[in-house]
Amino acid sequence: MSSSEAAPAPATPLPPQPSLQVVPNIPRRGRALVAARAIKPGEVLLVDSPLLLYPNLDVAADSASSSSSSSYCAHCYRTLPSGGPSFPCLGCSGHARFCSDTCRTLGAACSHTPWVCRALSILHATAPHLPPPLDHHPEALSQAAFLIAAYNLSAISPDGFVDLLSLQGGATPEHAALALHFLVASLSPVPTGPAGFSPELTASLLAKDKMNAFGLMEPATGGTGERRVRAYGIYPKASFFNHDCLPNACRFDYIDGAVVGGRNADIVVRSIHDIPEGREVCLSYFPVNWGYKERQRRLLEDYGFTCECDRCMVEKTWKDEEDELEEEAMDDEEMEGGEAGGEDEGMGGMEDGDFPHAYFFMRYMCQRESCGGTLAPLALSAQSVVSDVMECNVCGRLSRGDDPDTDPGSACLQLEANPILIECGLSSLRDPVMSSLVYVSM
Ligand SMILES: C[S@@+](CC[C@H](N)C(=O)[O-])C[C@H]1O[C@@H](n2cnc3c(N)ncnc32)[C@H](O)[C@@H]1O
């Protein structure tokens, strides 16, 4: 280089290229998220903060502890340390408790305002005497808690409420929605935002909740491995993900994790494996090990569509065979007067050749009994190196299982959710990811 040539400008790192595009309307699927470029396994595709959170009150009503106060912070839903300090709400005689004075102050300003506090207190007192048809409605209390949170949002954040209204889902008021509307109306005068308070709005909100709420699970406690939902959240960007019964991404929450900045209720969506540019990125709306009939029933009842994904197209034919087998078994039973074993609707009895998704189940499904979680690699390192450690999005176990011929369960590191590795996973949660959705017009 001669002395007259200008020295090259120091290289400035390129901003991260967005990984997802919002496509506004795919026929029969509505909005969708599509890979804006080739995506590697374990990439953090989205970090989303909740528009609102609300408690799963139906669990509390079921349990013996229904009369005691909740074991989660009423603002951020972190587990409260047993025997440790907690900060009672000053308005409802400590029924609601917080994990810190900061959460108590934030709660009073947004999630646990004086109106929410009063309405939830009355709801707790009313819970044993709900009028019909709510007395036989398994989710009545949680749905009432959702409506309280939603109408509270309409008053404290009209913009947030507009985001909520923009989500998929609408309905005309039917019996249960009307009953919930009048239950909420009876609790305490509802603070109305610009959208008002009406049976039509209530029905529409309930439909949006059904189609878009994410369950945040209780911590895994060993034992049976069965986990219940501690709270539900509405996540506006994550709500754009459509469903696939063999998803290419899955979501994690670290609600009890050591997340800086008070964003422990954020959810993180990571890719499970390579995704080519242009491919739709989908989550599974429930555990991937559910059988065909159960999946179709849930998708139709709660989400209003019939799934035609590749897996369903294959398993649809199994259903007919199963029905035939069931009929044969019933005929045999009638002839022999003996017991006939029923066919498992899931994977039971399948030969490898009948089951083209076998690889997915071996590689990406948690092998821990009764977990049903999906595995994704820990987040890509800063150098974009794909991790060979897989994390389960339900039980949090970490495992190494590159070789599909080995049982990933046997390679399981047997660590409880490892805080160091999870911190590594979270280290790539930079704010730019939040804005990495780009909107395209068709
Ligand atoms: C959480 S929203 C997903 C985003 C939605 N497409 C939108 O436009 O906002 C769930 C709704 O999307 C639609 N949907 C999701 N997955 C689908 C699929 N595999 N096939 C058809 N529709 C689907 C259904 O209407 C479902 O109730």
Automatic annotation (TrEMBL):
Residues 18-286 form the SET domain. Residues 322-346 have a biased composition (Acidic residues). InterPro entries: ASHR2-like, SET_dom, SET_dom_sf. It comes from the Eukaryota. Residues 1-22, 322-348 are annotated as: Disordered. Coiled coil: none annotated. Signal peptide: none annotated. This is SET domain-containing protein. It comes from Colocasia esculenta.
